[in-house]
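Appendix B.2, paired examples.
Example (i):
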Amino acid sequence: MSSIGLLFILALYVSILFYIAYWAEKRSHSKWTNNPYIYSFSLAVYCTAWTYYGSIGLAANSGLSYLPIYVGPIIIIPTWMIILKRIIRISRVNKISSIADFISLRYGNSRFLGALVTLICIFGIVPYIALQLKSISDTFHIVTKTQSNSNIFNDTTTYVCLALALFASYYGTRYVDASEKRRGIVTAVAIESILKLVFFLIIGIYVTYFVYDGFGDIYTKAAILENFEQKNSIGGLSESINWFFLCVLSMFAIFLLPRQFHTAIIENNKETHIRTAIWLFPLYLLLFNIFVFPIAWGGNILFEGQGLNSDTYSLLIPQFFNNSTLTVLVFLGGFSAAISMIVVSSIALATMLSNNLLIPYGFIGSLENSLQEKNSKRILNSRKIGIFLLILLAYAIYKIFILDYTLVSIGLVSFVIIAQLAPSFFGALFWKRGSKNGAVTGIILGFTICCYTLLAPYAIGITKSTSLFIQEGPWGIGLLRPFQLFGLNYLDPIPHAVFWSLLFNLMSYAAISVSFKGNYRERNYAEMFVDIDKYITNHENAFVWKGTAYISDIQKVLQRFLGEERTKRALTIFNLKYNIDKNITTADARFIKFAENLLTGHIGTASAKILISSVIKEDKISLPEVLRILEESKENIIINKKLTDTSNELKKISQQLKNANQELINKDIQKDEFLDTVTHELRTPITAIRAASEILHDDEDIPEELKKRFLQNIISESDRLNRLIDKILDLEKFETGKQKLYLSKNNISKTIKNTIESVKQLIKNKNIEVEFHQAQKEIKAFYDEERIVQVIHNLLSNAIKFCPEKEGEITITIVENKDVIEVQIHNNGKGIKEEDFEAIFDKFYQSRNQNVKKPIGSGLGLAICKQIIEHHKGKIWAKKTKTEGATFIFTLPNYNTTETTLP
């Protein structure tokens, strides 16, 4: 492909990334940009051009040696639920914006330590950025079949650097508060992570199944190549130890690399996103490594003896078969892997450079007396300039120094440098005795050993076997040979440097921390870091400070960075949180910590401390006093927690009592209505009987025909009265357990059919159509027939009552299940409100949704039905229907139930 054509594709691709970032920033609260999958895929910024190209080169030359860099993270990732969650909580409550801020804050807000961590990160990561630029340049020339040009204006990488610097400076410095979430950058990185994986899988599938005939074919053909068996085995004890140290190195890298800290910690919106990340990210790494071996050894087979760069096999293989489209896709995947690392790393490093070097050691004095707008502009400009300078520095290193080294070699050197932060970083999380002096000594000593055993030989050139320094050691002292320090000769250069540098680092950190006590501020933050779960809700309470401070002075400092409006809002929140009178003029320890946190995101932890300290007068506190205050703070937090739990429990009990009281009121109302209805029902037949009796008594000459009619009324009303009393007695017997059921095996279809016959006249009077298609089918069930007739009769009577005056329909259905039979009775009248589905079976309940003005019935029918069905070990309920009307369902034991008599 021509250079112009590929440049056009790259310009279009970068433009799409710009648009994705712009779209995500505008929709920062959308589920499409703020979800656990975007978060998890953004963590794949770990997979750089080293992963995309370098792993193939390492697998082609050294076999399985590429695996430890991925095995380490996969092993340690399950601990994220504990370790990563703790780091996120500490960073969130303290407004931390970088790993330099994190370590600096833990060791007493140390300005020097923050600067030291920043320099270590710049020293380790800028060459790593240069590594990505090298991969972009090399692969561009492979795809276009052109030669690299020493003229920077004719070098494509120059313009790529400028585009990335513009992208990172625009979307990475949109907020003065560096702890703010950058949804645009994160979403763009996540999309790039998906694309680079897809393109890598495509080339893997192409090589494995189109160039070759599967994994077995590649293995068979590669097995005859020289040293195949030796390269593709872990080897003996020494090789296993090498693997171990490489795994440890990558474990540290997944926490300590500035880009990983930024994506995993600073850009985390919810702790729950970790649950997705702990399975999706390892799966991502696994998928990325499935086809490394086939591509590497497929390339070795195709290009045996040609001396080609094995890092670029994924491009050379499709190019060899004239597949230009696939070649460009693979190039875009590698380009994505490189630029995502460059963008995130430059943003993270620029923030550290600004907050931990330029501001605390540079222009912090000028910020004290400037307006908020001017301060914000200077801070943002310092970060933008930092991004440009870092990328330009990486470009210079790429041009001058690392043209002769592979992707893997520079990447591992970068990992070793960053690993020097491990003892102080993990000590900050788990060890309260760790001190600033111990951390500083450990980092400096470890970095010095790293320079001696690794960086110096690389600067000289490890391929120069004639170097006396490498071969014999300085002044000919063999024990000081950089690759065999103190006679340790069975480790490769990288594991060798890891072992000695971390050994000296860890030992000095521990020894000095134990031997020399840190100041009270270090011990204070040690408690707050190690016991973060205790202080997560009220961390200001754990901050120890004594002295004289005025809110108005601190407020003026805050206004110079936050602005007047935001400062007032922050103070209001603080006063509400701790129930503080807004008229109080003096500031306590809680307010000092609160103010420092507000400034930390803008200017870093050390600078925030310097600015706040400039307007307050702090008294010295002894270490025993700090411990006493912290103990009191712990007790207060425990008491507050108990009070909160008690308050919540009281609220819960209060709500339960309120609900119970409301239920009693409702029951009382229902009972009144029931008594009113029953009284009415009893009075009606009694009144009718009395009226007829009085007429018969007072008028002896009443005609015989009329006398018979009155006597018939007396009989029918007596029957009505008797039925009502029977219902009340039935219900009482069921509720007290005195009612017995006499169960036998019966045909439920026949029982229903007979019951329909008993109400046939009522059905005919209302012109209701009854559908019962299973009337002729024999369906056996186990029940007391007399009682079930009572249930069906009641349900049918209700259905008839509530059917519309015209076109009324009643549908009866029987469903046979394994253990029970289910009877459904539906009418097309007015339905039942869903909230009444349970209440209608209460004995004092009467539906208000009836077709007459006044509720009719005693309110006992469904209550008795429920008792009967439940005594049959069945269930009865009302169901919501799609069409109009109401459906009642009850179940009964099927034919297989043992016959017995139930009380």
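Example (ii):
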Amino acid sequence: MDATLGGHGEAVMIEGAPGIGKTSLLAEAKRLAVSTGFQVASARGSELESDFPFGVVRQLFEPLLARMAAEDRQRILSGTAGQAAIVLKKVVPEHSLGGDFSIFHGLYWLTADICEKQPLVITVDDMHWADSDSLKFLSYLMPRLEDIPTCVVGTLRQFGEYGQSNTLDQIVTAPPAVLVFPSKLSAEASASLIISEFAKSGSPEPEDEDFLAACWSATGGNPLLLKELTEALTTEHVEPTAAHIPQVYALGPRAIARRVAMWMRRLPQGCAPLARAIAVLGDGAGLSHAAELAGLDRDDAMQAAKSLEHARILYIVPSDEMKPRMGFVHPLVRAAVYEEIAPADSHRAHKTAARLLRDSQAEIEKVALHLLRTLPSGDAATVTMLWSAARSALARGSPETAAKYLRRALAEPPPTGDRLDLLFDLGNAMRRVDSAAAVQYLSEAHELAGPSRQRVEIALSLGDALLALRRSEEALAVWQQALARTAPEDTELLYQLNACILSIPLYEPGRPDLRQDILGRVAELRSPKPSESIGGRYLDCVIAGHDTVIGDPRAVVRAQRALHEDTPARPSDGQSSLSFGWLALISADRKEVLASLDAAVEQAHRQGSVNDLTGALTYRAMAWLYRGSLEEAAADAMHAVETSSPGLHRLVLGPVQAEVQIEQGALSRAQATLEWTGVPDPAPLTGLMYYVLYSRSHLLRVQGRTTEAFHAALTAGQSFSAAGGDNPALVPWRSEAALCLHLLGRDEEARALADAELKLARYWSAPRALGRALRIAGTLSEGDADVGLLREAVTRLKGSPARLEYAKALADYGAALRRHGVRNQARTSLSDALDIAEARSAAPLVQQIQDELHAAGIRPRRHAVTGLHSLTPSEHRVYDLAVAGRTNREIAQQLFVTAKTVEAHLSNVYRKVGVTSRRQLSGLSEQTDATEEPE
């Protein structure tokens, strides 16, 4: 808490067995927080509500927002935090634009806004029962705590005592979480507690050491079990002597259950039914619902509740409306009551509870929680309510919970006429959770559907799920069958189906049996201009992807047409198609691709899912890499990795990240990244292996393993050629192999490969690919030809966005000039190259240039890397927003970073442009430094 008061959040996780004292420690944390000026947001996971979407999140934030002044609440929810408002509403529109990532991002800023003026402590008891959505938010929050004055304290049972939850494991083990393990009481402390409890009851105090030791042994030193044991012993008037040790061991492990059972026998008649009713309804149950479920009138129920409170079984909390709510003093006490309910009685009780909640206009998800615990009975009303709850859960961005509700509805089972629609909804929900399960449900729906437009829509979803599992042949068969049965006038579906079918060779390029007929369709569909519809744009992007792979420059115009500013609002279902358009523009060094990718990232933050964000970040990282902006590429790649399990994106994201690491000189990290892709060695030629194979070759060469690197480059070429690939802007395997051959002393073969790549690069004509091909051809050429080729490389790259490739060309050109005795020009080229390489933290290139300067005895002409043109792209965006008058917090919200990141960028801006305040920033005019950078 001291650290949090200093502005840096911390987290403590208290792990231990039930009854060890976790909740008592949590209560102490709350007491400390209040006494030191913290706000406190509290929640408790419960077994019943573990399937209630964002249930713990709502417990945390709803009371805080309710206590705020109306204008403060409106201010917070009208900003970025407003993206999370959908999860706090009792009723949500079924077609909400919220996606899971945008909601987590909104909840983070809700937390940051709440603690802006007063630090916050978030406490969550029984995290092992928290709903999965709330756990995902806490996992998202944890690494960002250091930037906000928020402390998180949670309790959970020991590992292995709860169902597997990777998210919970991440929360507990990832920084900044500190694990605390309360230990059992010592024998001495146990004896002290037992003597104290006996004294409170008025019973003779135990003096027999063997009896005290037996109590400690029978309970394992667990404080709660010790108290429960002593109460059971004193209530039964058991003398604390060695003669009664057998009774101690009989009671010990089940002390709570025995005590509860004993009280139920002794308490008035209505207490047992009321306790069972509250066990069914869950903690916080209202008196009226509990009374009706127990079959008691209100007065009798209230009297029974007081008796149960006196027996330390229930607690009672009066609400604002003087309608008391009740719960059990400990989850173990509820478990003891609930476990005594027969299955048939439990079914009837939960069914009745669902009806009571529905009739009182409770949230539909709370009704569904009880329906999940009923036995299937063919009840159409149950199906309707579960279906409605699933739609609400999806609108809140909780597909996992929606799928649970829909699976239970399917088991009811639904009326025959509803089964198809239910299967389709369930399959689509599962596509965001578990592709294999999605295939199962969508396949059944596909078989059940007769010839109809809906069957084609199901086919689109089914094929996507199959493709996610890399079952491309099955996906192709599904889509081709759907295409054959689609009406000619339904152009939108035809566009979408054709886009899907044409994408298959791009995902499985090494499968000639899948490619032949499809590639013929590319030529057939290339000529007509698709419509401006969503499907038409998807088709344009896929055709552009094919043209990019083969190196046909027509890809650029087609991709520009598809990705213009008026892009569809929700590209989630077609982002895989859009990515081929991004690939075309990235490979062509088109500056507008960053605007499209920025928009896609922003949209994913504001409305989209984790999958949307991962895809957009992967291709934006590639765009930054090709521009030589290594820090930005590394940041986007890391964000994509941290956001989710990237799946298919690994085969693109991994090589992008590895290339950045190679350029930075982090070779061991690059090797680990390529291993992370999961591609074996040797790799199969099918699938998108050529990116990984190329990066593997590059890494092996810089590691000095030249022969291995050469063979890896050839394998990359085979993989790329199997896809029909010839574009060196995507996979420059020929020049990589040429560099290896040169190192192996096989220069004639090296020059042949370099010349072949140069010819292909001239046809594609993008500056980065052409500049690289010219540079390597020049480096490998004989006689005076090297200077001409290298000069052309510098000229081609000078005005391009590919700044790191420009620096490499300058470096090699300077080296060639030095060899030819043109010392002054060599110094200029090498010095300019050094400025660019240092600004981009390209350590190996910096070292190469410095070695060349040293070998030539040249002292570099150093230019101070200052002025607006010295700013990195990220720094420039922060600068622009700061000049526009945005606060650090507003900049962070707009750029989807933390306030600490903004502060770091702003500090660099101040240093580079020579100012000390925001006021001075606004007075700056455009400046030019030694490494002037084009737009």
